[in-house]
Amino acid sequence: MIQQSAVRSRSFAKRAVGRGSPIRKMDGLMLLAIAALSVIGTLLVWSSTRSWMSVQPTALAKKHVLNILIGVALLGAVAMIDYRRLRTAAPVVFGAALIGLLLVITPMGATINGHHSWITLGGGFAVQPAELAKPALVLILARSLAKPAERTGRPRLISVALCLAATGITTMLVMLEPDLGTTMVLLVITGGTLILAGLRKRWVALFLLLGGAAAAAVWSLGLLKPYQVARFTALINPASDPRGVGYNSTQALVAIGSGELFGKGLFHGGQTTGRFVPEQHTDFIFTVAGEELGFVGSVSVVLLLGVVLLRAVRIARQCDDRFGSLIAGGIVCWFAFQSFVNVGMTIGIMPITGIPLPFVSYGGTAMFANMMAVGMLQAIRIRAYDRRSV
Amino acid sequence: MTRMHTRLIVLQIVVVSLIVVLLVRLWQVQMVRGREFVAVATETRTREVVVPALRGQILDAMGRPLVRNSTSLVVSVDRTTFERMPDGGAAVLGRLGKVLRMSPDKIKQQIRACGPGVSRPCWPGSPYHPIPVDSRVTQRQALQILERQEDFPGVTAEIQAVRDYPGGTEAAQLLGYLQPVTQSELEKREGLKASYSGVDLVGRDGLEAVYDAELRGESGLRRVQVDRMGKQIAVTQQKSPTTGDTLVTSIDTRVQSIVEKAVAEAAKSVGSDGAAGVVLDVKTGRVVAMASVPTYNPSVWVGGISEHDYQRLLSKKSGKPLVSRAINGTFAPGSTFKISSVSAMVADGSPLHGTYQCPSSFNVAGRAFGNAGGMSLGSISLHTALVKSCDTVFYRAGYEQWLRDGGNKPKAKVKEPMPNMARAYGFGQRTGIDLPGESPGLIPDRRWKENLWKATKIENCRRAKTGFPEIKDEGRAAFAKRLANENCLEGNIYHAYEAANFSIGQGDVLVTPLQLARAYAALVGDGKVRSPRVGRALFRPDGTLVKEIKVPVVGKLPINKETRDYIRKALSEVTSDGTAAGAFRGFPMNEVKVGGKTGTAEVWGKRDTSWFASFAPAADPRLVTVVMVSQGGFGAETAAPAVRRIWEGIYGLGKNDNGKPLKAALPSGHPVERLPVIRRDGTVAQ
């Protein structure tokens, strides 16, 4: 009784940061890395938008900060939830995500920057449901695969089928937009989660084979749009079309390369100011880091992303609960793939794909989704500590 | 759980290796190849913009502008920006068309590259240079484009200097016009190859072409930092352009106006297909005025000529206004040519003060050659032969000279006094005036006949056999066949009738109005044949003299002063007692006595060419004026009155259309002798 009243008498603030509080149990290093990436991202967004937002040079940077703040709030909120509750909520969340994707096809959908992937919420706000589909898919996959077949410890056939069905529906809706980048992210999340869940190697091989065959079929049947094919051609030989598709990748490479060791200094990148690289504040934000902050800056960004990823892997490994591990593992696949493809396309080792850089690129919905994912990671960590300390 | 843990470790390894791959690649891109990309970045970011030099002005003898520069708002389109757009810039062109009130198709035509199979309108310059589509936009239109750059990517509006012609259509062929320089033309130029941009204009005709190198100046170069859309962010380096030299000509704009008006009216009165007027300074050999009809306004070339204007300039209906009849039009000179024939007679031994028979007709090798109107004057002097223009005197002289050379069977060494004298007067060869496209005319002699025969023999002999089946009219076909046969067999023979025709400037003799004017200038002046000049001096933009343009003496008349004075005095009476007396009735000869010679040249299948070659003052000539009206009829009826109006204007004689006394175009009675003074700022001190 005395103890109870003592607990009660402790102020909210003390409870929040004091010993044994959830915040103390969070992964501080990961949060620190994310904070650093957010600060760098804000500066890069500012630098890359200030020249063409001549009327309000800081408008987009301010909006970016607002996105981060909303994201942090979402992170905190999600982190406070006992992640095991998400197991029951997963179908609802996934259903909501599908409805969001369906809305894009309805008159509520809007085309921004040539991509029909938005729904407008009025008041100048718009969200990209495809971004929110990523955490939703992670959740539904983890839920489906949480209970393996008792005898083998491998995922049951019905679970795998469910996973494939969920992925199929989601990717189909995303492809309708069409958004090849997000589709690839979703496929990687599914593939990664299935493998982590213990899918037999021969099944993995079969899926890879089927995937390869499907890709080959899509390629040879000409289902891809010419510009998508061209992007792959340009990857192999960027000089093939320096003014067209190769232009983006060449300009990105030139911008990053010209940064050299220390870069030209924030706000002093000529390629950035001249807007030679397209989508500089979103998909190609890494070029700004490369040019203005140099090798030092770009390596820092990559290492910070590495810290987030490795800490997330650690959370997955430390969690003794299969559901939590799968969530964390799925998120790792998601972030790792996006980070590698995004940075890779700017330095000429990946094809040009519309995938933003986590925590750095401008974009509200992506920022919210990323932060919520981090919230889930933290929630898993908090409960894992709880169990360990018990 | 162990399997999952193993797989998580694999995931960890995958993550680490991905990071390592990125780091290695970043090292390679930024550290190893960094310098290389810095160079590429600098190159893509900076552009070299050619700043065209202001072209030098062209002034008249008093410093009044013939061609000057004015500023104009020019809208240009960057085709490379358009090519990068998914729709090839169609949407932008549509918007631009609305603002400029032009059809987008028309703009599209203007900005396509010229080449084989692509005719005007097209862009002959560099595809990387902004292409001007409209050089006469209003400030409002320019602002509409500049204020909404997001709607008009690749479109700019800026102030540029364009050529301005205060005289309108006057002296159009003489001044010439500008066109964008072509790649091949540029390669021929020394030292300018690097600055090829297509913005460089080159003089294509007239003075603009001949003095192009001096007028052009030197382009400046500006290195600017640009953004992806080519918009200028900052200027990093600049070399200012140097304005071209100012060309002072010997043209007097007032005299030019008078000549233009007189020639145009004369041409209009008879429905002529072409006419010309030339005024030369006898003492210096410089051109005071030169007009050609039909004419056009050279400002149609400014900022790129439109398809409509271009086709009109070339169309038959407009009568080829680009061609200067004064230097490029060749016509039989008729009786104006007799100064050469009479000189040849005297040089060949005929007595200057002898008496000559002027029957109504003269028999040349069995063919009767008659005087115009059957005129018969009996025994006359050479003086009278010139004043009354008695053809039979010259027929006989020409025929006798022909006989002395052996007639149809020429001697080994022929004297040919008349063709040789004509060449001494400068006929049959280009005058060498500082204008392009001059015609040499033609002085037909025995050798010319021989060469022509050799060149056409095979074809003529073939036609003599096969005939002309393509000619429908049987009579005409038969005539053509007979002619071909005759030319095949004896085309090399210089016939007696040809020599006779030559003596009165008929037959195959062809001269340009300028050639005739300089022949008269040599005759009534110091006997020296000069290569006329329009350009007088070149000044730097700061007003210092670069060089004075000399008038070269290219020959001397092989007759003495006594003969020249004799002929001049004879011609001085043409306007009072001779063929031009009617045209000059009432002309105040007591104030300025005017001499001259009429010419009426027959042209097969057309009306006669009307000529009048004149000089004044008759006692000590300072100016020679020649007017030629193609299909103008009698020299005395069309050309002579036009010349009279020119003299009246120059000396301020008589009254103008409003009945007020005319003001003299040349108050001193002769062209100005001193050069105009150009101040440091380039303006002219009056």
Describe, in plain words, how this protein is organized in 3D.
The complex is a heterodimer of chains A (390) and B (686). Chain A has helices spanning 2-9, 12-17, 22-25, 28-50, 59-80, 85-105, 129-145, 157-176, 180-196, 201-220, 226-236, 245-257, 270-273, 285-318, 322-346, 364-389; strands spanning 109-112, 115-122, 125-127. With 390 residues, chain A is mostly helical. Chain A has one domain. The mean pLDDT of chain A is 86. Mean pLDDT of chain B is 88; it is low at 192-196. Chain B folds into three domains: 47-249, Alpha-Beta Complex (Penicillin-binding protein 2a (Domain 2)), CATH 3.90.1310; 253-296 and 324-329 and 512-651, 3-Layer(aba) Sandwich (Beta-lactamase); 336-351 and 365-427 and 435-503, no CATH class. Classes of the chains: A mainly alpha (390), B alpha+beta (686). Chains A and B meet through helix 9, helix 12, helix 13, helix 14 and helix 15 of A and helix 1 and helix 2 of B.
